[in-house]
Amino acid sequence: MSQLKSPWIAAIVLTGAFSSSVNAGTLVAQIKDRNGNPVVNAVVYALPVGRSAPTVAASTTAIVEQQSFKFEPYVSIVQAGTRMRFPNRDMTEHHLKVLSGPSAFEFKVYTRKEPEPTLLDKVGLVTLQCLIHDWMSAHIYVVDSPWFAKTSRAGSAVIEGVPAGEYDVYIMHPSVLIPGQVTPSGPRRVKMELSNVQVVEAKLELVPKPEPTKRYPPASRYE
Fold first, then answer.
1. Cα 65 versus chain centre, distance
2. Together in a domain, 152 and 132
3. Is residue 216 part of a domain?
4. Residue 106, domain member (yes or no)
5. 163 SS3 class
6. For a tag site, which of 122, 184, 186, 211 has the least CB within 10 Å?
7. Pair (135, 152) in one structural domain
8. 155/140 Cα distance (integer angstroms)
9. pLDDT tens-digit series, residues 35-78
10. How far apart are CA 1 and CA 39, in angstroms?
11. pTM of the shown model
12. What are the b/e assignments for 124-151, b being 16+ CB within 10 Å?
């Protein structure tokens, strides 16, 4: 994967290694915005250097629900080869469509009829929207690695069980990505060892947009 540069990532700093009781390394990322506030929904993943990551199990599935007229979760991370489910928990129809990304699909999602799981086998950012309720959007990051995590409201992400070796660590967020582009900045090279913790800190030179909130349309729009 080529190294790309971006002004959006001001600093990525490897702060150190600490002891841990696990039998594999742990990667911890702390992401802040330009004001120093924690960033939620940032995507962090590690790609091994000089070797391939293990492939995903054929039975692996993930889920993006449509509930309270919102996609949940707003940001997902899956390994390539995962099948994604899109159940509808609302009492009305949704019309899901991929706006951009390496995979293209579109279907109407009824309350009592869930679509067949969709195979996501191409790496990249898949951006979704409901064509009926246009405020509904979501992002699915498809990566070539099983070692990934998403930041919490505290701006932290923890990836456990990373085998020893060198890794390129990528940090992404929907507010800084060009649709369809996987990596907005060059990766940070880290060396993982057994029973240690590596901490990566990064600062985004912007204030990310908040994710959509749950909402309901007027009663006349219910089907």
1. 15
2. no
3. no
4. yes
5. coil
6. 122
7. no
8. 19
9. 999 999 999 999 999 999 999 999 999 999 998 999 999 999 99
10. 25
11. 0.85
12. bbbbbbbebbeebbbbbbbbbbbbbbbb
